[in-house]
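Quick illustration, no need to memorize.
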Amino acid sequence: MAYEFYKKNPTDKVYWVENTEVIGEMLISFDGKTIFNLFQDYPHNLTTEQKRLFDSENQFWAKLLDDR
């Protein structure tokens, strides 16, 4: 699979990941190696620190997924 990593803001800690072979996946990474599927892995497969970082940089998604 071909992945492209990018940050929405230069100071962000969270990478958004685009899978160039699949449309519609919401993927994130904290280290550029391990990739999480936002809808499948948030929040239960993230560490406490990863969740805190994601939530602080992505308030829209944190609020949308708050009931998990």
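The first strand starts at residue 3 and ends at 6.
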